[in-house]
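REQUEST ID: PR-0412
SUBMITTED BY: lab tech R.K.
PRIORITY: routine
TASK: structure prediction, single protein chain
INPUT:
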Amino acid sequence: MSDATADQREEALYERFRELAIASKTYTHAPVFTVGESSAITDQMPGGHSKNLFLKDKKGGLWLVVVQAQLNVDLNALAKELDAPRFSFGSAELLVATLGITPGSVTPFALMNDRDQNVRVVLDQAMLALTPLNFHPLRNDRTTAIAPSDLVRFVQACGHQPIIVTIPEKKAG
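STATUS: complete
OUTPUT:
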């Protein structure tokens, strides 16, 4: 679906929501590419907001780590906790090839494009206590809110078993 327009990708997502009976609410806003850019917009939306890290481990494994926006993730500690080789960020080309989205639009909703289940999914346990949860609907000029239980159900319906953990945070200093 990487050749599809942003509108077509977004509509495919909402069709998937309808199939799964997932209620959602979508907000339109100026495009945002980073958590920092999005704070002025997300402050106006209820619920939890996320940071979505597309990672590659030292052995070539792919990971999508979905955490609370303000969390400063300790990637080395997370790799140890998951018994994974050392993490680095996946390239933009790999992101497009695997999840069919571009940097700035990373979202767990893109797992619907990972038909071969190449990506392992990690969800922040603390984030799942917030409701609703807000993510880009495969484009960075909108934000879609869903219930935490629906996020887990959506990930599973995409053929992925999410790993739900307490995400280690980098210590200040």
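NOTES: DSSP finds five helices and eight strands in the chain.
REVIEWED BY: pending
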